Amino acid sequence: MLPGRTYTPEEILRIIWFRKWILLAAVVLFTTAAVTVSMRLPNQYKSETLILVIPQRVPESYVHSTVTMRLEDRLRSIKEQILSRSRLEKVVYEFNLYSALRQQRGMEDVVEQMRSNVTIDTVRDDSFKVTFVSENPRTAMIVADRLASMFIDENSRDRTVMAEGTNQFLESQLEDARRRLVAREKTLEEFRRRYAGELPSQLQTNLQVIQGTQNQIQNLMESINRDRDRRLSLERSVSEALNSGSSAPADFDASRSDPDRTPTGRAVDQLEAARNDLRALQLRLKPEHPDVAAKRRQVAELEDKVRQEVAADPTAASKGLSAPDLLRQSRARQYQVELDKVDRQIASKESEMARLRQLVDDYQHRVEAVPGHESEMTELMRDYETLQKMYSSLLSKKEDSKISANLEREQVGEQFRILDPARLPAKPFSPNRPLIGGAAAIAGLLFAAAFIAFLEYRSTGLRTEDEIVRTLVLPVVAAIPIMTAVADRERHHRWMVASAAATGLALIGLTAAVLWRFGALKGLH
Fold first, then answer.
1. What global pTM score does this model have?
2. Domains in the chain, please, with CATH?
3. Which long-range contacts (CB under 8 A, 24 or more apart) does 223-226 make?
4. Integer CA distances (angstroms), 261 to 306, 319, 405, 475, in order
5. Tens digit of each residue's pLDDT (9 = 90 or more) over 3-46
6. Distance, C-alpha 82 to centroid of its chain
7. DSSP state for residue 200 in the 8-state scheme
């Protein structure tokens, strides 16, 4: 490149025109090579299937689905299963795909090639597209249809398996909760049986029983006091009946005539004194005191003695007795019968009162034991209520899961349905020969421009007077034009026209050959 040389747009256009044959040759060469190569490339046909995701037909407010995975996640999972080697090998053998490639390479390469020919794209939130590319249009259609059916079947199977898995998991959890709940119920039952009557829930009942029993004891005590008053009255009546009308000398004579017999009035007096002593002891001491018990035995002995004297043989008793004495003895025996009846009533009431006092003691012990069991009972009930709530919740979820599993099993849940089935492609989508030819022509132009720039950089020649003046910076005295004959100019013009015509015819012939070849290949397919 000469120093001082500049390039104006006019100069660049002149250089392009001067080097036009290089530019034209590069474009023709690159285009021809690209078209030749593209003609040797096999045609690729693409068939696609549009699958619509249909939501479950039962409203969510009635049945909640247990399959909550998003569509993208489920498609990713199903895609991994469909594009696994085992699944794709079955499809390859089923449709005899890649027969030439199987003879040259192993099954792993064949499966990898098939994976590269399968495309899954999400169109919208409720649909996706399955595409398969093959050199045969019919093969592309049937394989795309087969992959779509595999997606539908796999989705149905996956949803059923997921629903059944959820159902089985909830069932196992429910069984575990049931065992724990039954064990806790048995613990509660044993606790209630062990501390029956001492539970916190029975506190009010125990207090009511104590209050009622104390009222009964009070009533019994009042009744016993009334019976004792009546007994005293009967004893006085017996004493009066036996002593009235009898003088001391008579009694003294009777005792002297029968030294082995104790005077009746004296025995009655002893009995009366003993009973008075017993009442005084009962006011000061408890019924279980030994002195009270000894005094009771003495009273009982004296009573037996009086009854024996009164119930003696009437013939023997009536000897030396007048009619009024016999009447008094008869009246005394009646009083004694009533006295015995009152004694039995008092004994029965005292026994009942002792029983009631023991009952009060028992219930009082139960009341005192309630605080000790309350904390343990609270802990047991808290755990029991927690287990009961958990069991009820799991049972409800188990029933919902069972309904959801039946929903998936009956094919009423969410489903994949083919909206646009695979069709036979009418023309190949690859290779795009016009695009390849245009790209090759552009590449040829760029290569030619780079080559021309390189030639200009290496060139040291001057072609015009202006270049000489600008480059050499020399004064020009005169310019002598080139004198050429008219014949030479015409001959040069004709040669340029012929060259341009030949180049145009070559490009037309090449284009026609490419179009014919492309049409022939299309007709074969």
1. 0.47
2. 45-174+404-420 (3.30.70.1130), 202-398 (no CATH)
3. 223/349, 224/346, 224/349, 224/350, 224/353
4. 12, 15, 106, 198
5. 555 666 777 777 777 777 888 888 888 888 888 887 777 888 88
6. 29
7. G
